[in-house]
Each structure stands twice: as structure tokens, then as C-alpha cells.
Amino acid sequence: MNPDKKTKIIFSVGGGKGGVGKSIFSVAFGTVLAGEGHNVALVDLDLGTANLHTYLGIIKKTPTIADFILKKTPSLKDILLETSRKNLRIISGAEFVPGMANPAHWMKLKIMRHIKALPADLIIIDLGAGVHFNTLDFFGVSDRGIVITAPEPGAVINAYSFIKGALFKSFIMSSGNIPCSGLLSILKRKKQQRKRDLLLRGLPGKLKTFHPTCSH
Ligand SMILES: Nc1ncnc2c1ncn2[C@@H]1O[C@H](COP(=O)(O)OP(=O)(O)OP(=O)(O)O)[C@@H](O)[C@H]1O
Ligand SMILES: [Mg+2]
Predict the structure, then answer these.
(1) Which of 38, 49, 50, 102 has its CA 20 to 30 A from that of 27?
(2) What is the CATH number that goes with domain 9-152?
(3) Could you give the percent of the chain with pLDDT greater than 90?
(4) Angle between the 153-174 and 133-140 helix axes, to the nearest 10 degrees?
(5) Which ranges of the chain have pLDDT less than 70?
(6) Which atom of ligand 1 is nearest to 129's Cα?
(7) For 135-153, what is each residue's pLDDT tens digit?
(8) Is the CB–ligand 1 distance for residue 47 below 6 Å?
């Protein structure tokens, strides 16, 4: 990547399984990019079980994203902290606060809007484990998604579920006001065209369960 070419890119780091190295990767990736001269912001969105700050050696109490969610600070950029590495800053995640891991939809949109406005060229979002809609939503609105797994069956299967969940969520989010019947025929047509695509398997059935206009 060329540091002189200033295009803002938001990366999200996810993967279904816990403990596979998402946070370590985020810190390493951010450190390398910052070392190359990019202005990098790490954002810890592992709400409730954050640890990016620990991996960066930040042990003293600092403002965290909880202050933003609890409206103690109006802007996310106000809590962008310096780290010991040049060009690398961090929005620190919060310790456990009740309800923190499940922000309301409008709050998720607000968080994303503020992340996009951070004064950095490259933004790396570290996500938590699992395939909860919160995690998939943040993953889906990023410019680039990075899925981390480990070479063991459980982790690979969870990563696969994560990719499938992200695809499903982005399909629903991008479908706007298309009615259920229209979405089902789009999915069925895609399945016909891509018979061997495992990611599309079972999606029409799931659509009936999850999409607001399909549930009745
Ligand atoms: N490539 C690696 N080589 C050796 N150890 C690693 C590697 N990646 C991660 N670890 C170790 O595995 C542990 C978990 O890593 P990490 O916290 O990055 O996982 P995670 O996917 O972010 O977990 P969580 O889902 O709980 O957030 C840490 O102790 C870390 O030091
Ligand atoms: Mg982590």
C-alpha cells in the first residue's frame, strides 16, 4: 500500500470462533501499516470483552467506547488515544457494562458514522467472536472484511458460518424495500446459476425466518 495515496479504508476483522487471533492480527496489521507511514486507527468493537488496549500495553484507565455509548463524550474522535507506536491510535474497548454488547440499531449506525469520520487513513475494527447480528452488521458496513481462523475443524466451520452469516445479513440490508417474494426469487435464481455455491445453500429457508417482510 502506498502511504501517499490517501484513501480512507475501513477494515473489519472477524471470524466465528473465539481465541483464534483476531485481536492479535488487528494489532499486528495496524502496527505494520502504521510503520509504513499510514495514519492508522484501531477500533475495539469487541463490546464487553475488549482487549486490544491490553495487547498494546495500555493498562492505565482511559476513556473507552463506553463513554461514547453512554453519551459522556459527544464524538468518537475525542477518545482516539495515542499508543506507543507512531501513527497508530486506538479507540479503546470497554470493560463490561450491562447492555453494552447489544447496542440499539440507531446506536450501531451512530457508532459506524463516527468511525467513518475518524481522522485516520486506515481504520481497523476488531470484532468479537460469534455470528451475532451486531458483529455481522459492523462487518457488513466495512470496506474490507478479513476473516481469521485457526487450522482446526471447529474454527474453520465457525469461520464458514461467519462468512455465510455476513453474506446473508448484507443481502438483507441491501434489499431495501423489496418484498419477500421478490427476494426469494432473486435467491432462487442465484442458486440456479451457482448450483455448487455452498454459501447459498439454505438461505431461502432462513430468509423466511429472519426477514421482516417474510415472517408472516
Ligand atoms: N498467530 C499466533 N501465534 C501464537 N499465538 C497466538 C497467535 N494468534 C493469537 N495467539 C494467542 O492466542 C490468544 C488469543 O488471541 P486473540 O485474543 O487475538 O484471539 P481473538 O480471536 O481476538 O479472541 P476473542 O474472540 O476472545 O476476541 C492470545 O493469547 C494470543 O497471544
Ligand atoms: Mg479479540
Answers:
(1) 102
(2) 3.40.50.300
(3) 52
(4) 70
(5) 1-6, 198-199, 208-216
(6) 25
(7) 888 998 899 999 999 999 9
(8) no
